[in-house]
Write a structure and sequence with these properties.
With 472 residues, the chain is α/β, with parallel strands linked by helices. The protein is 22% helix and 27% strand. The chain folds into 3 domains: 202 residues, Phosphoenolpyruvate Carboxykinase, domain 1, CATH 3.40.449; 196 residues, Phosphoenolpyruvate Carboxykinase, domain 3; 44 residues, Phosphoenolpyruvate Carboxykinase, domain 2 (Beta Complex). Strands 11, 12, 13, 14, 15, 21, 22, 23 and 26 form a 9-stranded mixed β-sheet that branches. The chain has an 8-stranded mixed β-sheet with strand order 1-6-7-8-10-9-4-5, sandwiched between helices. Strands 2-3-17-20-16 form a 5-stranded mixed β-sheet, covered by helices on one side.
Length: 472
């Protein structure tokens, strides 16, 4: 077998570590990456530097003739010319070439072989490599030997900055996607979530071309094969509520709905760790062990015990772990058509009821409007809940006009007879700062009642302001 090289990308560093083992990544991170440590339960403690959340204003998409008319250009999908992309690409590659070693992760996005992408990540930190080995679907030894050329490549230049004086650049951070070259370039940020969401953006463009609905949602399945998908922005409860002791987890964040059913895009979970406790989130708490990446958490220097309540670094503390670290999980992460479509909204004004049953028309309306709140820390500069309208409960990652996704969702709900629900995981008794956030145990009880069909036969009252059917 020929030795593995990155010569086709003009990368020629001294050492290339491709899909190396978790213990090796630990050893390298501990030796070479400042501030890295091992927690008392074996997780890798890492820091993402200055950026502790995504930088959505620095995301760019190259304007190509083949895709230009399909993309919903605006404040979210900001255009970039090919020349500037190539400048940024060259900066990233020059930085990679300046180092003694780089890490390569060759893996898959998508559990359904019919739709999966081969992804190659080229990065400079062992932490980033372990993160993506957790978040993608790792190939077997035999699959790796025949992996061949990837469908998409990520060049992660980490802290090396973009030139903010270059055309269409506004800062030293840039996350650039070129759909024609099938490449993503990252400069000026070490936040690992940019890689994960970059691939999600790719899937959000490609899947509708095949009449497949990409979804910013979690999903689980009951022992009777009843599937639920839970839509919501980061911090609204997707990950927490999908890890249910009475159901099997399919995935916590990114899925696709095909003619055959649903599949998870990812091979791992990326859970918020703020205020994490075994009492409230036992499945996630127990998933934190050797192989888990804990980002930007505070810990005791002597005992290495993590204080999940300490947000002095960021409120966006995170845990990345392989999906099979959850005790009750469906592998492969593929299932049938959803029985329940649940929209999770963190209502910062405290006006929505805890649960509402939606008509098909209401489901389309709430999906397109995506009323919710940005939760503190998930994006740079967000320090308290901010009411927002995020189309499809994930506007930051949607490439087409929201109507494209809404039409796909409406067609699939109608064809497969799914029931739609709106669940408020935000505030009650008044807005943020006046009322209180709905307790997790109450939201869990509501989700359980939906799964068990407890609301199917009960009387409802029509909420006068929004016309929502509220179970009594």
């Amino acid at each position: 077998m020929q030795p593995f090289t990155l010569a086709k990308y003009d990368i020629a560093t001294g050492e290339i570590f491709r899909n190396i083992s978790v213990p090796q990544l630990y050893e390298i991170a501990l030796r070479r990456e400042k501030g890295t440590a091992i927690s008392d339960v074996g997780a890798l403690l890492v820091y993402s530097g200055k950026k502790t959340g995504r930088s959505p204003k620095d995301k760019r998409i190259v304007r190509n003739p083949s895709s230009e008319n399909n993309i919903d250009w605006g404040d979210i999908n900001i255009g970039l010319d090919e020349h500037t992309f190539m400048i940024n690409r060259e900066r990233a590659i020059d930085f990679l070439n300046s180092l003694e070693r780089v890490y390569v992760v060759d893996a898959y996005a998508g559990w359904d072989p019919k739709y999966r992408l081969k992804v190659r990540v080229i990065c400079t930190r062992a932490y980033h490599a372990l993160f993506m080995q957790n978040m993608l679907i790792m190939p077997s030894k035999e699959e790796l030997e025949t992996f061949g050329d990837p469908d998409y490549v990520i060049f992660n230049g980490r802290v090396f900055p973009a030139n903010r004086y270059t055309s269409e650049m506004t800062s030293t951070t840039s996350i650039d996607l070129d759909l024609e070259r099938k490449e993503i370039v990252i400069l000026g940020t070490e936040y690992a979530g940019e890689m994960k969401k970059g691939i999600f953006s790719v899937m959000n463009y490609l899947m509708p071309l095949q009449d497949v609905l990409p979804m910013h949602c979690s999903a689980n399945v009951g022992y009777d094969k009843d599937v639920s998908v839970l839509f919501g922005l980061s911090g609204t409860g997707k990950t927490t509520l999908s890890a249910d002791p009475n159901r099997l987890l399919i995935g916590d964040d990114e899925h696709c709905w095909t003619d055959e059913g649903i599949f998870n895009i990812e091979g791992g979970c990326y859970a918020k760790a703020i205020d994490l406790s075994e009492e409230n989130e036992p499945e996630i708490f127990r998933a934190i062990r050797f192989g888990t990446v804990l980002e930007n958490v505070v810990y005791d220097a002597a005992t290495r015990k993590v204080d999940y309540h300490d947000t002095s670094i960021t409120q966006n503390t995170r845990a990345s772990y392989p999906i099979d670290f959850i005790e009750k999980v469906q592998i492969p992460s593929v299932a049938g058509h959803p029985k329940h479509v649940i929209f999770l909204t963190a209502d910062a004004f405290g006006v929505l009821p805890p649960v509402s049953r939606l008509t098909p028309a209401q489901a389309s309306y709430h999906f397109i409007s995506g009323y919710t709140a940005k939760v503190a820390g998930t994006e740079m500069g967000v320090v308290e809940p901010q009411a927002t309208f995020s189309a499809c409960f994930g506007a930051a990652f949607m490439m087409w006009h929201p109507n494209k996704y809404a039409e796909l969702l409406a067609a699939k709900i109608e064809k497969h007879g799914a029931k739609a629900w709106l669940v408020n995981t935000g505030w009650t008794g008044g807005p943020y700062g006046v009322g209180s956030r709905i307790k997790l145990k109450y939201t869990r009880a509501i989700i359980n009642a939906i799964h068990k069909g407890d609301f199917d036969q009960v009387a409802t009252v029509l909420e006068p302001r929004f016309g929502l059917e509220v179970p009594l």
